[in-house]
Design a protein that fits this description.
213 residues, alpha/beta, 6 strands, 45% helix, 11% strand, globular
């Protein structure tokens, strides 16, 4: 990996999305929705819900609960989440190595996610993934705020909302086809680069950095 540091441009800050980019949150979220349904006595199709991960929690809950109950139910879900979802959630293939590739290049790796920030931090701690910063509760265009603040020149995500966030920040949009949006959809949304998954990221980064310099 040493050759990755032999370029003259400043070391990059790379942003990463969390759900379905760094972590496979489907099993944990599925279990949490089932527990929430039992607790509230309200039917939730957990199998369906986990096919559309990415947007904020409230965007999913509105499908199952009256609008005036969504905020309270979201609080309940977030409270139940650590004991149910954290241990059940694995890293996506290549996630630790992707973060390490950024570090090996002398860069910073930051996580910008729509997930509730304390729970995002619990996921990363549980998996031993050490990000330089974790910013939660931001979705789509609002992710651009944190990406600009952190000086990110690249943002890696799995959703068309992540592509919009990258573009809003003037960052290169690197999309991974590991979430609900397929490669064609990500390209159509304006992704600059589409990878099959994070296992392809270190090689892409090692090609990108010298070219960028």
């Amino acid at each position: 990996m040493a050759h990755m540091t032999s370029y003259s441009a400043p070391a990059p800050t790379v942003g990463f999305d969390l759900d379905m980019t760094l972590i496979d949150s489907r099993p944990g979220i599925h279990a949490c929705y089932l527990a929430l349904a039992e607790r509230t006595g309200t039917y939730i199709d957990a199998d369906l819900a986990i096919t559309r991960l990415g947007p904020p929690l409230a965007d999913e809950l509105i499908n199952w609960f009256p609008a005036d109950e969504v905020a309270a139910v979201a609080d309940l879900y977030r409270e139940m989440y650590p004991s149910i979802a954290i241990a059940a959630t694995p890293a996506m293939p290549g996630a630790p190595e992707a973060i390490e590739a950024v570090r090996a290049a002398g860069g910073r790796a930051v996580v910008v996610t729509a997930k509730y920030e304390p729970n995002a931090k619990l996921h990363l701690a549980h998996l031993g993934i050490d990000a330089d910063a974790v910013i939660g509760d931001l979705w789509a265009e609002r992710k651009a705020e944190a990406l600009r603040e952190e000086g990110a020149s690249v943002y890696v995500g799995d959703h068309v909302g992540d592509v919009r966030g990258a573009r809003g920040a003037g960052a290169l949009s690197v999309a991974v086809a590991t979430g609900p949006c397929d490669a064609d959809e990500l390209r159509a949304a304006g992704a600059d680069v589409v990878l099959g998954g994070l296992t392809d990221f270190p090689r892409w980064l090692s090609d990108y950095l010298p070219a960028r310099a």
